[in-house]
Amino acid sequence: MLYYCQIYLTSIKVGEFMIGAIIGDIVGSVYEFKNVKSKRFKWFAKGCRITDDTVLTVAVADALLDIAAANDEASFKELLIDKFHYHARNHLLCGFGARFLSWVSKQQRTPYNSFGNGSAMRVSPAAYAASTLEEALYLAKLCAEITHDHPEGIKGAQCTAGAIFLAKIGYSKEDIRSFAEKYYDLSFTLDEIRPVYKYEISCQGSVPQAIVAFLEAKNFKDAISNAISIGGDSDTIAAITGSVAGAYYPISEKLRKKAFSYLDFEATDIILRFEEKFIK
């Protein structure tokens, strides 16, 4: 399967819209429970893989590709639920949280009041499908609240999507910081929190850290290194950081293709079709 993905990518431009998040997820996947607390670590180390962060990011993109078929907000949410169930069932061993896995296994269609960082790590396609900041925030809310309907879950998704949207249209880091500070206190540095930061899966305990990792970065790779260096939920923090950094900084073709080598044909096809439809 991966062989065919490699051939496909030789003739079609690789999309960047989700690649920042996906790269962060893959690189951080081996450090989630083996934190490094340093910017000196191996990229794409043995054992790296995609996790639930990538699977659900692809699911959001898949739903947005079919958004025209949804006549209203309610029907779009139903579409999102269908896509989440479908993609999660096909990747059950990708590290889903217990509550989400139960939601999928029981075929539930109602949210469970979560404020976990899952709403933020999967939201990047909403920012790319949107044509205005207001639309990005609206889509982020819909994508979050089918599971993460707690105010903090929605807040984390909207802050992330808004930051991505501003980055993709060329706003400065100062502007992005000002926007994000409407949601969270960002008055800390990574050096200050690195010694004491612990594993945290809430939006309020990981999205601000992911945003600061982007703000302190010199380039895309530095942003991912920043995110992983603080420890904690490394794959998800790096995915959130990468989703913003990927909209702000260029990503090398070599790095993008490396990320795609971890994906199956279906995910690759969804990404490329999404790019064709939404990336101008």
Helix content: 55-70%
Mean pLDDT: 93
Q: What fraction of residues sit in β-strands?
A: under 5%
**What's the order of the H and E elements?**
HHHHHHHHHHHHHHHH
In short:
With 280 residues, this protein is mainly alpha-helical.
Describe it.
This protein is mainly α. The protein is built from 16 helices and no strands. It has helices spanning 2-9, 19-28, 52-65, 73-89, 98-105, 118-121, 124-129, 133-145, 151-168, 173-180, 190-193, 207-215, 220-229, 234-248, 253-260, 265-278. Helix 3 crosses helix 16 (265-278) and helix 13 (220-229) runs antiparallel to helix 14 (234-248). The longest helix is centred in the middle third of the chain and has 18 residues, at 151-168. It is globular and about 45 Å long. The chain starts with a helix and ends with a helix. The model is unreliable at 1-15 (pLDDT under 50).
Tag the structure with descriptive keywords:
mainly alpha; single chain; 280 residues; 0% strand
Give the topology, please.
Blueprint: H1 2-9, H2 19-28, H3 52-65, H4 73-89, H5 98-105, H6 118-121, H7 124-129, H8 133-145, H9 151-168, H10 173-180, H11 190-193, H12 207-215, H13 220-229, H14 234-248, H15 253-260, H16 265-278
